[in-house]
Design brief:
CATH superfamily of the largest domain: ATPase, nucleotide binding domain
Largest sheet: 5 strands, mixed
Distance between the termini: 26 Å
CATH architecture of the largest domain: 2-Layer Sandwich
Number of helices: 11
CATH class of the largest domain: Alpha Beta
Strand content: 15-25%
Number of strands: 10
Shape: globular
Oligomer: single chain
Structural class: alpha/beta
Helix content: 40-55%
C-alpha cells in the first residue's frame, strides 16, 4: 500500500485537496465546494470529503495509506460547524492523524516556508498573518464580509455596485461599471441591483464573483474602477503593517528584509491585478521599507502538505520546496 500525506485548503469559494508521497511529490489534486467553517458550516465537511474522494480516485489510492492530513480552513477562529474545525475530518481520516489550522497559517507556510515572513490574502475575503524570526505568530483582519474584508474581491465588487448606484443617484461620476454590472447580471437598470443583492442566499461569494468586472473596467481605462483597485491595495497594506506591529517588528528599523507574499485571486487578474499589487507595494515602501513583496513559493494547499510532511519526518528544506513548487506548477495548482 502506498503511503502519502494530504493537504487541504478550505476557502470561501472552493476546497482543494492535494495528495503527495513522502518525498513531497504531488500525486493528485481534488476539488470541492466552499470550505469555510464559519460561513459555510453546513457544506464545509462535505466539500472536504468531495475533494478528498476526487483526489483518491484520480491517484488510485486507498484512504488507509494516508499517514497524516493537514486542514487549512477559512473561518477557523469562529467555526459554526458542530464539533469545531476537526469535524471536517469525519469520513476522511482519524483525528489523531490530522492537524487543523487557519487557512492563513497554511498560506503563510506555502508562501515563505517555515521562516520569518508575512502573507496577505485577498480572495473572497481578506486577511494577513506573519511570523517573526523568533517564531512568534500574529494575524490581522479576516473578520468576515460584514465587519471587514477590506481589499477583498467582495469589498471590490461591493464598491462597484455602490458606484453604479451613486451614478444613478447623481451622487457620483459616470462609470463603465454600471453597464458592465447590468449586462452581466441581465438587469435593466441600476435600481434592480437592490433586489438582486438582497435576495442572494450567499451574498459574500456571489458579490465577490463580480470583482473581475472591476478589473475589466480598469483595463479599459475607467478611472473609478482604477481608484477602487488602488484603494484595495492601500487597505491591504494596512493589514501587513498591523501584522508587523503585532510581531513587534519595527517596519522602519534597519535589518534584514521581511518577505511579504501576496496570495489570492485579487492579485491574479493581469494587468488589473497588478494595480492592486502596485498600490500595496507603494504603500508598504512608504511605511515599511524593509517589507519586500514576493510571489508565494507554493499555493496554500502546498503549505498544508508541507506541514503534513514535517509531521511525518519528510524533507522540507529549501531545495525540497523548490522541487515541490515545480511539481505543483505541473499539476496546475
Amino acid at each position: 500500500m502506498s503511503s502519502f500525506v494530504a493537504g487541504f485548503d478550505g476557502g470561501g469559494t472552493k476546497t482543494v485537496c492535494m495528495l503527495a508521497d513522502l518525498s513531497g511529490r504531488p500525486m493528485a489534486v481534488g476539488y470541492g465546494g466552499p470550505g469555510n467553517v464559519c460561513t459555510h458550516p453546513e457544506v464545509a465537511p462535505a466539500s472536504c470529503r468531495a475533494a478528498w474522494e476526487q483526489a483518491l480516485a484520480s491517484a488510485g489510492l486507498a484512504a488507509d495509506g494516508c499517514r497524516f492530513a493537514v486542514f487549512g480552513l477559512a473561518g477557523f477562529y469562529a467555526p459554526n460547524v458542530p464539533g469545531g474545525p476537526a469535524a471536517v475530518a469525519s469520513g476522511i481520516i482519524p483525528r489523531d492523524r490530522a492537524g487543523f489550522h487557519s487557512d492563513m497559517e497554511t498560506a503563510l507556510v506555502g508562501a515563505v516556508g517555515t521562516g520569518a515572513g508575512v502573507v496577505v490574502i485577498a480572495g473572497t475575503g481578506s486577511a494577513a498573518c506573519g511570523r517573526n524570526p523568533r517564531g512568534r505568530f500574529a494575524r490581522a483582519g479576516g473578520w468576515g464580509y460584514i465587519l471587514d474584508d477590506e481589499g477583498s474581491a467582495f469589498w471590490i465588487a461591493r464598491r462597484a455596485i455602490r458606484a453604479a448606484l451613486d451614478q444613478y443617484d447623481c451622487r457620483g461620476g459616470a462609470t463603465a461599471l454600471t453597464d458592465l454590472l447590468l449586462a452581466h447580471l441581465k438587469l435593466r437598470e441600476p435600481p434592480d441591483l437592490e433586489r438582486y443583492v438582497y435576495e442572494l442566499p450567499e451574498p459574500n461569494t456571489a458579490i465577490a464573483a463580480l470583482a473581475p468586472l472591476v478589473h475589466q473596467a480598469a483595463e479599459r481605462g475607467d478611472s473609478l474602477a482604477q481608484a477602487i483597485l488602488h484603494d484595495a491595495g492601500t487597505r491591504l497594506s494596512r493589514l501587513v503593517l498591523a501584522v508587523l506591529r503585532r510581531l513587534d517588528e519595527d517596519p522602519k528599523a534597519a535589518g534584514p528584509n521581511m518577505p511579504v507574499a501576496t496570495v489570492g485571486g485579487v492579485f491574479g487578474e493581469e494587468p488589473a491585478g497588478s494595480l492592486v499589487r502596485e498600490a500595496l507595494r507603494q504603500a508598504l515602501h512608504a511605511e515599511a521599507p524593509r517589507a519586500t513583496l514576493i510571489w508565494p513559493a507554493l499555493p496554500p494547499v502546498g503549505g498544508a502538505v508541507l506541514l503534513a510532511l514535517q509531521v511525518c519526518g519528510g524533507n522540507t528544506d529549501e531545495h525540497a520546496i523548490r522541487k515541490f513548487a515545480a511539481w505543483c506548477r505541473a499539476f496546475g495548482v
